[in-house]
Write the structure tokens for this entry.
Amino acid sequence: MKSIKGVLFDLDGVFYVGGKLIPGGNETLAWLRAKGIGYRFVTNNTTLSRSALVTKLQHLGLDISENELLSANYAGVLQLQKMGLTRCRLVLAEAAQTDYPPTVTDQLEAIVIGDIGNDWDYDLLNSLMNQLLEGAELIALHKGRYFQTDKGLMLDSGAFVAALEHATGKKAHLVGKPNAAFFEMGSTLLNATAKELVMVGDDLINDIEGAQNAGYHAVLVQTGKYRKALVEQSPITPDGILTSVAALPNYLAALMK
């Protein structure tokens, strides 16, 4: 019998895709509450502030409150405070900048990179490269390779972070998943050890490998960015695979027997 005190959930691709909820998510959360198993949502979303993201998800119909959410965007704010950096260029959507110091373009201490959609271009990358070469630190809210949308997989900001690392020889300070410190924050929030926690996500690297490296039991869902061919080609082996988050109660019940 495995003792399970809590579950960490990815959001995008696990509970929703685009503007639609994946069936069964709220029922799974209700089951966890009934069993006294804690949970938190851990997301690499960097397009919205924490409060705005929660509001969006509530409007979609997800049963979530702000204190249950740990986002890479908010973790970036904490990282800057930890490093004592205030003069930052924010390569973030305007809606994601709420909790940060005001963005600046000169005498930089750091460049913070998140998701800005189609606003990436050569001139922006070249400008950022030169500022990094002049001494600014590179803060990456995550290094996701791609994400799932209604139109299919889309290139994520991690590709541009990698380009800047390659061009400058600088290593980014990684904030979100799969950074071990991000998972440790989740463990602290649930007051549990890694061995007592389960991670549920749709990303082999950020969710599954990151969680396993942190000592978690990691479960992959076949929704969102899941692709059978990618799983078969990957050296990463999930501890479990579920059709969707709706199947988690039965999986956990069997695990705890």
